[in-house]
Design goal:
Blueprint lengths: L2 H7 L10 E3 L15 E2 L5 E2 L3 E3 L8 H10 L2 E4 L5 H14 L16 H11 L4 E4 L8 E5 L16 H4 L1 E2 L6 E2 H4 E2 L2 E2 L1 H11 L3 E5 L5 E6 H9 L14 E5 L3 H11 L5 E4 L7 H13 L4 E7 L2 H10 L3 E4 L9 H5 L5 H12 L6 E4 L5 H9 L4 E4 L1 H4 L8 E4 L2 E7 L4 H12 L13 E5 L4 H19 L4 H9 L5 E3 L2 H6 L10
Parallel strand pairs: 4-5, 4-19, 5-14, 9-12, 14-15, 15-16, 16-17, 17-18, 18-19
Antiparallel strand pairs: 1-23, 2-3, 6-7, 7-8, 10-11, 12-13, 20-21, 21-22
Helix pairs in contact: 2-3, 2-17, 3-9, 11-13, 14-17
Length: 501
């Protein structure tokens, strides 16, 4: 049955991914031909369709960096002060760049101990020294890792000006040296960097004032992670951040991060509200460049209202996450397969992509979510199990586990998650999430490729070379699926074995 007829037949029923199975299609290409680039918002794309959920046991800077290098995008949670969240954004942005727009600098009057603190806290050992200690000031020298080899005792108090490598001994290029057709060219700058044999190359204007910097480590990261989701101009890793829908707190947070982050998500369990609609409009006026993900919604009406207010992407899901109890506590929600299909059907009329948030247990569910019309998938438990997730790691009965908490759990609400559920001013709260543990899966660098491989195998069997081709199958009614019975679900899993690996 084609997908349109399928959901017409089961109109009024709330279906999950496990309620349906996709039919194979004709294949005329190889598995290696599948492309995974996809649209996250009107203007932002990622190289794989996986995003990390803005939960405080899932995404902080380490997760955003690791996922970004694999081609996805991380969304930082808001159980942080605006200032802390801003520092997390900057940590992600500093990890990888092309031209470093705001390089860390020192002045000759500062101590080598201050340089050592930068090395220990930020991992940056090569630092330009300018007259005032700021970008735009005259470059006078460089500090490198070799200046820290004897950092103890009185040495820590010595002035950088007395220890630095003076400018006369440093390789430096001007903006004119790397400019072609009126634009600085990163490829040209990298040629000079490789010729210099140095770790970093400062770039100055005609007056010798520091303008930017490029580093060998950034060049190596670019070569080692060609799939990384990065800003087209700066080559920095793309990163998103969660923002409350409580106006005062949202304004304060946006004042801090609005000009630094690539996209935001208004993070609330029920996004079809006058508060969120007003915030979207206000934010678009204040930060017209900022991409806004709005939600959460599960109906076409909610989806349409947020898009017409100015949303650039729609986050779909209510109560389908493994640690979410919204449907049990409030009786409100929708089966995720139905929710994604109905919202994606509406969003396609406006050219706005949909994010399927929640209900993903395996790579088969990822494929099904994309087949329902989602452009990207937001993961919680499937990322909470990795090294880079901030949740606590514990050993229980010889098994390695990671802590995973719903933002509606009482402990998460105490840390700030109450704003997501509109209970921040209530003395009595009813939790809409639980605290639990998930089996440890290792590093994002090894876990994500295995998820993507499983997803590719699903797309291949459907006969879709990419996610856009899959969505065209939906529009042409060429995608077929069937309702599963209990017996067919049992048959589709491992069965009739005494044991297996």
């Amino acid at each position: 049955m084609n997908i349109c007829d399928f959901f017409a037949k089961f109109d009024g029923e709330s279906l999950t991914y496990d309620d349906l199975i996709l039919m194979p299609g004709f294949i005329d290409f190889g598995l290696a031909d599948i492309q995974t680039r996809t649209q996250v918002s009107r203007e932002i794309y990622s190289n794989i369709p996986l995003l990390s959920s803005p939960m405080d046991t899932v995404t902080e800077a380490d997760m955003a960096i690791a996922l970004g290098l694999q081609g996805g995008i991380g969304f930082l949670h808001y159980n942080l002060s605006p200032e802390q969240q801003l520092e997390q954004i900057r940590k992600v942005k500093r990890y990888k760049s092309g031209f470093v727009s705001e390089p860390i600098t020192l002045s000759p009057e500062e101590s080598i101990g201050q340089g050592l603190r930068i090395k220990e806290e930020m991992g940056i050992s090569t630092v330009p020294v300018t007259e005032t200690g700021k970008v735009g000031s005259k470059l006078v020298g460089m500090i490198t890792k070799y200046h820290y080899s004897a950092c103890f005792g009185d040495y820590l108090e010595q002035k950088i000006g007395d220890l630095m490598t003076p400018i006369e001994q440093c390789k430096v290029v001007t903006l004119d040296d790397i400019t072609e057709n009126g634009e600085p060219r990163l490829a040209k700058a990298n040629e000079y960097l490789l010729e210099s044999k140095g770790a970093a190359l400062p770039i100055v204007d005609q007056n010798g004032c520091l303008q930017t910097l490029i580093t060998r480590s950034d060049l190596e990261k670019h070569e080692n992670y060609p799939q990384a989701s990065t800003d087209i101009k700066t080559k920095s890793i793309l990163v998103g951040a969660a923002v409350e829908t409580w106006a005062d707190r949202a304004h304060r947070r946006l004042d801090a991060i609005g000009d630094q982050v690539d996209l935001i998500v208004f993070d609330t369990a029920q996004g079809f509200t006058s508060l969120e609609i007003a915030l979207i409009r206000e934010t678009k006026e204040r930060f017209p460049h900022l991409q806004i993900i709005a939600g959460n919604v599960v109906t076409p009406e909610g989806c349409r209202a947020l898009i017409e207010a100015g949303a650039d992407g729609i986050r779909v899901g209510m109560g389908s996450g493994s640690i979410c109890t919204t449907q049990e506590v409030s009786g409100i929600g929708r089966g995720q397969a139905t929710a994604v299909y109905r919202c994606a059907e509406e969003a396609r009329k406006y050219g706005v992509p949909v994010i399927a948030d929640g209900g993903i247990r395996n790579t088969g569910d990822i494929v099904k979510a994309l087949a329902m019309g989602a452009s990207t998938i937001m993961l919680g438990s499937l990322l909470a199990c990795t090294d880079e997730a901030p949740g606590e790691t514990i050993i229980k009965d010889g098994m390695k586990l990671k802590q995973y908490e719903g933002m509606g759990s009482l402990s998460a609400m105490d840390r700030g998650g109450a704003f997501r559920y509109g209970t921040q001013i209530s003395k009595l709260r009813s939790a809409e999430g639980v605290e639990g543990k998930v089996a440890y899966k290792g590093s994002v660098a090894t876990w994500i490729p295995s998820l993507i491989q499983g997803m590719k195998q699903g797309l291949h069997k459907i006969g879709a070379r990419d996610i856009q081709s899959l969505h065209r199958l939906i529009d042409s009614n060429a995608l077929h699926l069937e309702r599963r019975t209990d017996a067919s679900r049992a048959e589709g899993k491992v069965h009739d074995l005494v044991s297996y690996k």
